[in-house]
TrEMBL record, chain A:
<keyword id="KW-0813">Transport</keyword>
<feature type="transmembrane region" description="Helical">
    <location>
        <begin position="259"/>
        <end position="279"/>
    </location>
</feature>
<keyword id="KW-1133">Transmembrane helix</keyword>
<keyword id="KW-0472">Membrane</keyword>
<keyword id="KW-1003">Cell membrane</keyword>
<protein>
    <recommendedName>
        <fullName>Autoinducer 2 import system permease protein LsrD</fullName>
    </recommendedName>
</protein>
<feature type="transmembrane region" description="Helical">
    <location>
        <begin position="184"/>
        <end position="209"/>
    </location>
</feature>
UniProtKB/TrEMBL annotation, chain B:
<dbReference type="GO" id="GO:0030288">
    <property type="term" value="C:outer membrane-bounded periplasmic space"/>
</dbReference>
<protein>
    <submittedName>
        <fullName>Rhamnose ABC transporter substrate-binding protein</fullName>
    </submittedName>
</protein>
<dbReference type="Pfam" id="PF13407">
    <property type="entry name" value="Peripla_BP_4"/>
</dbReference>
<dbReference type="InterPro" id="IPR050555">
    <property type="entry name" value="Bact_Solute-Bind_Prot2"/>
</dbReference>
<dbReference type="InterPro" id="IPR025997">
    <property type="entry name" value="SBP_2_dom"/>
</dbReference>
<dbReference type="GO" id="GO:0030246">
    <property type="term" value="F:carbohydrate binding"/>
</dbReference>
<dbReference type="InterPro" id="IPR028082">
    <property type="entry name" value="Peripla_BP_I"/>
</dbReference>
From TrEMBL, chain C:
<feature type="transmembrane region" description="Helical">
    <location>
        <begin position="62"/>
        <end position="81"/>
    </location>
</feature>
<dbReference type="GO" id="GO:0022857">
    <property type="term" value="F:transmembrane transporter activity"/>
</dbReference>
<feature type="transmembrane region" description="Helical">
    <location>
        <begin position="33"/>
        <end position="50"/>
    </location>
</feature>
<keyword id="KW-0812">Transmembrane</keyword>
<keyword id="KW-0813">Transport</keyword>
<protein>
    <recommendedName>
        <fullName>Autoinducer 2 import system permease protein LsrC</fullName>
    </recommendedName>
</protein>
<dbReference type="GO" id="GO:0005886">
    <property type="term" value="C:plasma membrane"/>
</dbReference>
Length: 350, 362, 350
């Protein structure tokens, strides 16, 4: 999806798009902060176990690995592309790690191999999107199927560790049950926060970040001003593959096991988190802070709703409505101004 | 394993008559307990849980909240806990993934539940969370699909029927129908489904007794009617001489039965595990001669009593320990065998055919 | 143009714009022929391995199995050519199929009403998608992603652990799913008629041709006086209605519906549309291509089983073939564009 896809016919004119900057972004994040506070108040009122260290730890276990994938997805959507293969890559990396462990590899070689395959898979996406100019939505639906398929070839009906396999080392699988020393955070949360900080710096304080914004807003202009658009996009997909592989390794260790179905169907959750975080599907707009808030809101909501026995299907409805309301509110101001200007004209234009 | 229930009306009827069902099946004599004692003929609960504590909270975590088979089982569990003066919380996701079940395990820990009864979507991925729950003093039980966690946590598997018996019964049923000769195939659920794979393992062993029957392939319908039908069609194209299909999952067998009943030119014998309510029409029109299952609500009921007994300390997971399961009578904990730890078996599977299918309402 | 040309270097005879357009049309049709050819080749290769694949039964399966995806691909094509996307169709199918089934369970409707109700449910959802997209000027990907969750959640609340089974549905209704006329399945006939009507309309009527204009350049279309908002709304309405109809037909074909029916179909349909040569950026592509794309995907799936390839390999091969199809399509369209530019360039030079 390049920047001009999804510019609905009724989409906002370029001038409007370009004028969106920090201030609007911060307004969006301000809204998210309000939502977050509301969620936290609601949670502590509804559930006696919500305000506890274990909630923070569990939320990290549940959403940490998904949140990791949201970081490169933010970058990719910023440039007007999309990566739907993320969850399949998570599954492939975990499956490869399990496959190699099953065949007697050491834990570190297995992990490194999984990460390498992540980068290679990302490179495949990257080459097809950046250098043959294929639409990323189409390419990554293809690799979504391909990566999951390869994972299935590797493990099939096997869950690793299988019969006779050694367990994964305790020193590593403890990340699924223990928080970091001296805190309530899970290892996955800490990893996410560190990478989010790094991503925030890259996106908002480096020339590379500015290039991402530029590509999302005006690919041609970015290209003329010396940004190597294809190379940047290629790199982003490689990073995405790598981070998703990290998420796959993380999930495998958290669960102390892996089967080929790991992470099935999470791609749209990742996209939803990023979009709710205020990143524009048109590209060019969004902040890591917004995505961070979005992650916390989704993580907290899931904890509250499960603690208070809200059925899973109602949780789906709530997710959908939140997403819907968020985009409507985001565009509400523009709608209002349009209505106002039409009223001012007095409807005499037609 | 996904099971499916037919009409809404039937389902409702079942809910209201849940008590009667248990009694009915017992009366029909199709479900003598393998380790059972006397069973009560009255549908009325006797609340004979021994010294089971009042006010117990048991988390039932099904494969997903919508799976009709599991809904029946959960209702059985609710009935058991109601008789004992406790309560059941049913919590899970909408899709069959371990990731959707982990938050429910966490919620059980945070709510200081007394026991968890889980139908695992993954044999291993839930082990760390369940182990944490066990360390917090929660008794862990599995049913329908077992976890495979070694000793961490210690858990009791409430088995619907002896795993080996399920596998061998299905092969024997099919062998009779096709004269022990010809190509056969298996239409299973997901390739990673633990219980199905265990049964298929025993099917393969049993097939050695029938040298003229050849298992050509196993295909996976992922417990989705559409996928099941599509792989079935492919199967029929790929193996024109196919004589029989075993489908050890209710979605698979009913999808296959629907196809075969509308394509009479395809002569393939079909058996497996199915819900009588769903298979009745196909048995009556001759598409399916015989198939097997047990009553899911009884399974949940048994699991509920087992959970209460463990949580009350009136039973242990030690081999030979006994506990009472309300109207089902008393049960004994079986010794660990192979992959399976301590377990309790509901009873042998019931085989359904034209002569008895009208007796079963589930 | 830096790449080597395979086009004839000889002077091209002067062409009018009309014939250039005609030639483009011919080439587009050539692509549809190419797709059809690919299906035939696939069938031939599979038959070489397994002669039974060419039986009447098997051909009926190929036609039937791709019908539902093909039907939804028609609606999705209408939406995608306007530079939008509809991700809610899988959930719409599920909801429609269940509600129609539930009405049969209660003997509330007769057979024909089943289709009417299915279409109506889909149309309402399509209308909501379209209205939110158009009125609030929100990217349709976000809107329909949110609707994907919300509708699936509502479906779950309604289904509530129940399931529709064959015995509850009128025999005459399920007959549509398997009966044939002169060896051609009913399901295929219904879908073929709709594809033919939609295909004819898209080529003929001004209002439908305007969809392409909107997709090519929303701004230009608006400037040219095309009521873009209304057209896009109708595209979503039709997409929803066809997904609703697909739900009613799903019930007829599979005679079993649970809360997960249709999950993940949206990505399959988008794949079919892309394989069928519809540009994901909008502006070009035909419903015939999309329908053939659906047929090809289904043939791939059936062929893999019929060729007795292990189930573990299915997904990986399907993914690889999908990528190959997208890449091939790109290569073909680049050749076409190059040829066209060359002829046009030659024309201008003269």
């Amino acid at each position: 999806m390049t920047s001009d896809v999804q510019t609905a016919p009724t989409g906002r004119p370029d001038s409007v798009q370009r004028s969106i900057g920090w201030r609007d972004a911060l307004r969006w994040e301000g809204g998210l902060v309000v939502v977050l506070i509301a969620v936290l108040i609601f949670g502590s009122a509804q559930s006696s176990s919500f305000l506890s260290q274990s909630t923070i730890f569990y939320a990290g276990i549940n959403i940490g690995y998904i949140a990791l994938m949201a970081l490169p997805m933010t970058f990719i959507i910023m440039t007007g592309e999309i990566d739907l293969s993320v969850a399949s890559m998570l599954g492939l990396a975990g499956s490869l790690m399990g496959f190699l462990w099953h065949h007697g590899w050491g834990i570190w070689p297995a992990i490194i191999a999984a990460l390498v395959v992540g980068a290679l898979g990302g490179a495949l996406n990257g080459v097809l999107v950046a250098y043959t100019a294929l639409p990323s939505i189409a390419v990554t639906i293809g690799t979504l199927t391909l990566f999951r398929g390869v994972a299935q070839i590797l493990l099939g009906s096997l869950t690793v560790p299988g019969v006779g396999d050694p367990q994964f080392p305790d020193s590593m699988t403890k990340i699924g049950t223990q928080s970091i020393p001296g805190g309530a955070l899970s290892y996955s949360t800490v990893l996410f926060l560190v990478l989010a900080l790094l991503a925030g710096i890259v996106l908002h304080a480096t020339p590379f970040g500015r290039a991402l914004h530029a590509i999302g807003l005006q690919p041609e202009a970015a290209s003329f001003s010396g940004v190597r658009v294809a190379w940047v996009k290629f790199c982003l997909f490689v990073v995405s593959g790598l981070i998703c592989a990290v998420a796959g390794v993380l999930l495998t260790l958290q669960n102390a096991s892996v089967s080929y179905t790991a992470g099935t169907g999470l791609e749209l959750n990742v996209v939803a988190i990023v979009l709710f975080g205020g990143v524009s599907i048109f590209g060019g707009k969004g902040t890591i802070f917004g995505v961070l808030l979005s992650v916390i809101i989704f993580g907290a909501l899931q904890m509250i709703l499960t603690q208070t026995h809200v059925e899973a299907e109602k949780q789906l409805v709530i997710t959908g409505l939140l997403l819907l309301i968020s985009v409507i509110v985001a565009n509400g101001r523009e709608l209002l101004s349009r209505v106002r200007s039409r009223l001012a004209v007095g409807g005499g234009s037609r | 394993m996904q099971f499916t229930v037919s009409k809404r009306s039937r389902n409702l009827r079942l809910v209201t008559a849940a008590t009667a069902v248990a009694a009915l099946v017992t009366v029909a004599g199709c479900s003598s307990q393998s380790a059972g004692g006397g069973s009560s003929d009255t549908g009325k609960a006797t609340a004979s849980g021994g010294a089971a504590k009042k006010g117990l909270t048991v988390y039932f975590i099904p494969k997903d909240t919508q799976n009709p088979y599991e809904v029946l089982a959960d209702k059985g569990g609710q009935k058991a806990l109601k008789e004992l003066g406790g309560k059941v919380v049913v919590s899970s996701g909408t899709t069959d993934t371990a990731a959707a079940q982990i938050p429910s395990v966490q919620a059980a820990i945070q709510a200081k539940a007394d026991a968890i009864v889980i139908a695992a979507n993954d044999p291993k991925a839930l082990c760390p969370s369940l182990n944490q729950a066990a360390k917090a003093g929660i008794k862990i039980l599995s049913f329908d699909s077992d976890i495979n966690c070694g000793n961490s946590p210690q858990h009791l598997f409430i088995n619907q029927a002896d795993t080996k018996t399920i596998g061998t019964t299905e092969v024997d049923l099919l062998a009779k129908e096709i004269n022990s000769t010809g190509q056969i195939a298996i239409l299973s659920a997901a390739q990673s489904a633990t219980n199905q794979n265990a049964w298929i393992g025993y099917m393969k062993q049993q097939l050695k007794k029938y040298p003229k029957m050849k298992l050509v392939t196993t295909v996976y319908g992922n417990d989705d009617p559409a996928t099941s039908l599509n792989v079935l069609k492919g199967l029929i194209s790929a193996y024109p001489h196919l004589k029989g299909i075993i489908s050890p999952t209710t979605v698979g067998i009913s999808s296959a039965a629907q196809y075969l009943s509308t394509h009479k030119n395809v002569k393939i014998a079909l058996t497996g595990l199915g819900l009588p309510s769903q298979m009745r029409a196909y048995v009556k029109d001759g598409t399916v001669q015989k198939f097997a299952l047990w009553d899911p609500s009884k399974l949940g009921y048994l699991a509920g009593y087992a959970a209460a007994a463990l949580a009350s300390g009136t039973a242990t997971m030690k081999t030979g320990a006994t506990f009472k399961a309300g109207t089902l009578g008393s049960y004994k904990v079986l010794a660990p065998a192979g992959d399976v730890g301590p377990s309790v078996v509901l009873g042998p599977p019931t085989v359904f055919d034209k002569s008895n299918i009208d007796n079963y309402k589930f | 143009m830096t790449t080597t040309e395979t086009a004839p270097k000889a002077p091209v005879p002067a062409l009018t714009q009309a014939t250039a357009a005609g030639r483009l049309d011919a080439l587009l049709r050539a692509r549809e022929i190419g797709l059809a050819l690919a299906i035939v080749v696939l069938i031939a290769l599979t038959t070489a391995k397994n002669t039974h694949f060419l039986s009447a039964d098997s051909i009926q399966q190929i036609l039937n199995g791709g019908a539902l995806i093909g039907l939804m691909a028609v609606g999705e094509t209408l939406v995608i050519v306007t530079r939008n996307v509809d991700l809610s169709i899988g959930s719409t199918l599920g909801l429609s199929a269940y509600i129609v089934g539930d009405l049969f369970v209660h003997d509330a409707i007769d057979i024909w009403m089943g289709f009417v109700v299915g279409i109506a449910i889909g149309a309402v959802i399509g209308l909501i998608n379209g209205l939110i997209t158009v009125v609030f000027r929100v990217p349709s990907l976000v809107v329909t992603l949110a609707m994907l969750y919300a509708i699936r959640g509502i479906d779950g609340v309604i289904v509530d652990g129940k399931q529709i089974n064959a015995s509850s549905i009128p025999g005459g209704y399920t007959a549509i799913g398997y009966q044939t006329v002169l060896g051609v399945p009913w399901l295929f006939i219904v879908v073929a008629i709709i594809v033919a009507i939609a295909g004819y309309a898209m080529r003929t009527f001004r209002s439908s041709r305007e969809l392409y204009a909107i997709g090519s350049s929303p701004q230009a279309a608006t400037l040219a006086g095309i009521p873009a908002a209304r057209r896009v709304l109708v595209a979503f309405l039709i997409s929803g209605a066809l997904a609703g109809l697909a739900g009613a037909l799903f019930l007829a074909e599979y005679a079993q519906v649970n809360n997960n029916s249709g999950t993940g179909y949206e990505l399959t349909v988008v794949s079919a549309v892309v394989v069928g040569g519809v540009a994901i950026f909008g502006g070009s592509g035909t419903v015939f291509g999309a329908a053939l794309g659906a047929l090809l995907l289904n043939t791939i799936n059936l062929a893999l089983v019929a060729a007795r390839i292990s189930a573990s390999w299915n997904q990986a091969i399907a993914g690889a073939l999908l990528l190959a199809a997208i890449a091939f399509d790109r290569w073909l369209s680049q050749r076409v564009t190059r040829k066209l530019r060359k002829t046009e360039g030659a024309h201008r030079d003269i």
